[in-house]
Automatic annotation (TrEMBL):
InterPro entries: CBO0543-like (IPR048147). It comes from the Bacteria. The chain crosses the membrane at residues 64-83, 90-111, 117-135, 147-165. NCBIfam families: CBO0543_fam (NF041644). Keywords: Membrane, Transmembrane, Transmembrane helix. This is Uncharacterized protein.
Length: 166
């Protein structure tokens, strides 16, 4: 299921032509991938969610796939089709947030992801609210995107009591 999701999003990037704009979004999808790698580094012994993929791959492999295939694909698609009209932007943004929350809910129902340390699908929903806001902000105001990301990381480390030195 996780493998299928990665390949489905990658196929969408390639088949829709959005992938032709990869250079335009390179810095942003690299930033998103680096944030995911940072999560895995800081939380490696205290994960708030873990993947339980199928087909002989473990959490690390699944997360690396998500880091280098799924997250860049999502970022490219999100930015490539980002609308210009204000009302449309609102629905587009929430469509992506709700869509990824539903996708994660399906993974949870099928045991492909589990939560720990108090994380839940509601936290994921909040995370996606910030993630998609930061993805767009990163394109328009790098400093604000970096500050919001840093603040979010500090907030999550404190709330979920992630020990950084153990």
């Amino acid at each position: 299921m996780i493998l299928f999701t990665n390949f489905a999003f990658l196929a969408a990037v390639l088949l829709t032509g959005a992938g032709r704009q990869w250079k335009t979004y390179y810095v942003t999808y690299t930033f998103v991938s680096l944030c995911n790698l940072l999560y895995n580094l800081l939380c490696q012994n205290h994960l708030t969610w873990s993947f339980h993929p199928e087909l002989l791959i473990n959490h690390k492999i699944a997360d690396l796939l998500n880091t280098f295939v799924l997250l860049p694909s999502i970022t490219i698609l999100y930015l490539y089709y980002y609308p210009s009209r204000k009302l449309t932007k609102f629905f587009y943004y929430f469509g992506w947030v709700i869509g990824l929350t539903l996708l994660e809910s399906i993974w949870f129902m099928y045991g492909r992801i589990t939560y720990d340390r108090g994380w839940s699908i509601l936290w994921s929903f909040g995370f996606y609210l910030v993630m998609f806001y930061v993805i767009k902000l990163h394109q328009t105001n790098l400093k604000k995107a970096l500050l919001l990301s840093l603040g979010s990381v500090i907030f999550l480390i404190l709330v979920f009591k992630i020990p950084l030195w153990d």
